[in-house]
Amino acid sequence: MSRRAQFIIIVCAFLALLPVIAQKGPSPKSNAAHPETAQPAQKAPEPDGQRVFRQNCARCHDAPQGFPAQVSGTVLRHMRVRASLSEKDEKALMQFMNP
Amino acid sequence: MTGIITRSIGVLACASLFLSVQIAGAQEVPLISGGVGFVTSTNGGNTTYLPVVSPVLAAPLGSHVLVESRATILSSISPKPGQGYDHDAFLGLDYLQADITANRHLTVVAGQFLTPFATYNERLTPIWINNFQSAPLIFSLGTMQTTHSVGGMLRGSAVSNAHFNFDYAAYFSAASTNEQFNAQRSSGGRGSFYIPAAHLEIGGSYNRLLQGTHENFGGVHLWWEPADSSFRLRSEFATGEHARGYWIETGYRLHRFGGDHGFLSAFEPVFRMQQTFRSEPDPNDGLPAANTQQADFALDYHLPHEIRINTSYSRQFSSTGDRNIWQTGIIYRFLFPTWRGK
Questions:
Q1: Which residue segment(s) compose the domain that B213 sits in?
Q2: pTM for this entry
Q3: Which of B255, B273, B333 is closest, CB to CB, to A13?
Q4: How far apart are CA B140 and CA B286, in angstroms?
C-alpha cells in the first residue's frame, strides 16, 4: 500500500474521532423505549430503567419507536439473555417499559 | 433428511407457539420481529442485488423458558458475464435456542446459538442493527466459520453493581454436518467488564476448535460511548493460528443538529478501519490471502417508522489488488405480537 493511501487512512481516522473531541450533545437513544409512547428528552435525573436501557440495549440498536405493551415482557426476556442483564436491571427495565 | 429436519423445526415452532399461547402472561405474548430489506453491493464493478428477510420468533414458555429463533432468507441476483444475471436463493437458521433461567446469575442455553466470540456475531449481525452491509474482515476468526454452535452455553451476569458489571458466556459445541445445523466441535467463552461511570466496556474471548487440526482463537473488544454525547466507538481484535486482525468503528448521530426529530439528526456518519495480517496461508480461515487494509465510510439515515437507509463506500488495499466497494440498502424493522393477548 502506498504512503499516500496510508496517510489518507490516518487522516480519515482522525477526522472520525473529532466529534468526541469537539462535540458534546444529548444522547437520546432511549427516549422511545416505552411501549406505544415516545417521550421527549427530560432534564430530570435519569430513572434506573432508562439508564439500564441506555447502557445495555441502546448501545447496539435504536429504541423501537413504540411496541405493543403485551410483548414488553417477551422483549425483556430476550434482552435478559442477549445483554446478560442482572435481576435488578431486569426489574428496572420492566418498570421503565411499563410505567 | 433435510425435509425431516425442516418439518421437525416447523412442528417445534408450532408446538412452542401453541404452548406459549396457553400459558403466556399479560406482557409475555410471543412476538415476531426482525427486518426486511433490499441491499445492493458493487464490488470491483459488478453489482449484486440482495432482497433479504430476517424474521425473529420469541416465545416464552412459563416463567423460566424462552424459545427464540432467527432465520435469514435472501436471494442473490448477480451479473453473469455476457448472459444476464444469475439467481441464487438461501434460507438458513441463524439460531434456534431455548433459554432456561436457572437463577439470577445463570441462564442455560441449549440448541443452536450464535457462537460467543467478541461482540460482532451476537450483537451486530441483525440487518436492522448493523451500520455496514458487510461484516468485518476478521468475522470468521473465532466464530468457527459457521458463526453458530450446536450444544449448550452458560451465560449471565456474574457481578452487577454501581461501579462495574461483569458478564460471561461459556459454551461447548458438538460437530454437526446437517445443512441447517452445521457446526464444528469447539469450546470457549467470553467475559466482559462494563464500567458505567466511564461508559466503557472491555472484554476478552477465547475459543478452541476441537476437531481436525486443533486451533486456538483469541480476541479482545473495547466499546466506548462518552457521557452526554452521541459519539460511539466499537472495536475488536482477533487472532488465530495463521492470521490476525482488527476493526475500529466510530459513529456520530447528529442529534446535536436539529434535536431528536430534525432532518439532520437522522443522519449518522460512520467510519470503520480494518486490517488483517496473515502469517501463513490458510484457505479455510476466511480471511484475505494477503495482508489487507480497508477503510469503510458510511452515511446512514434513520427514517420514521423503523426504516433506515444505509450507504457505504469502502476502499480496500491489498497486494492482490486494490478495489472499491459500494453498498446501499433500505431496511425496515418490524415487531408485533402473535396474538392480541389478555
A1: 2-337
A2: 0.85
A3: B273
A4: 6
* Residue B342 placed within a domain: no
pLDDT at B156 over 90: yes
Q: Which residues contact B21 (CB under 8 A, 6 or more apart)?
A: B30, B338, B339
- Comparing alpha-carbon positions, the chain B residue that sits nearest to A12 is B271
Mutate to test the interface with B, among A6, A62, A81 (most CBs of B within 10 A): A81
Where residue B90 sits, what CATH number does that domain have?
A: 2.40.160.10
Tell me if B273 and A65 make a contact (CB, 8 A cut-off): no
- Report mean pLDDT in 10-residue bins for chain A, 99 residues: 59 57 48 50 71 87 81 90 87 84
Residue-wise pLDDT for B77-131, tens only, equals 998 887 888 999 999 999 999 999 999 899 999 999 999 999 999 999 999 999 9
> What was the pLDDT predicted at A38?
44
pLDDT at position A67 is 80
CA end-to-end span of chain A, whole Å?
A: 56
Q: Cβ contacts (< 8 Å) between A68 and chain B: which residues?
A: 29, 336-337, 341
Q: Which three cell numbers stand for residue B105?
A: 446469575
- Give the C-alpha separation, B198 to B181, whole Å: 40
Which of B335, B315, B313 has its CA nearest to residue B326? B313
| Least Cα separation, residue B207 to chain A (angstroms) | 19
- Please report whether residue A22 resides in a domain: no
- Minimal C-alpha gap between B335 and chain A (Å): 7
A45 touches chain B (CB under 8 A): no
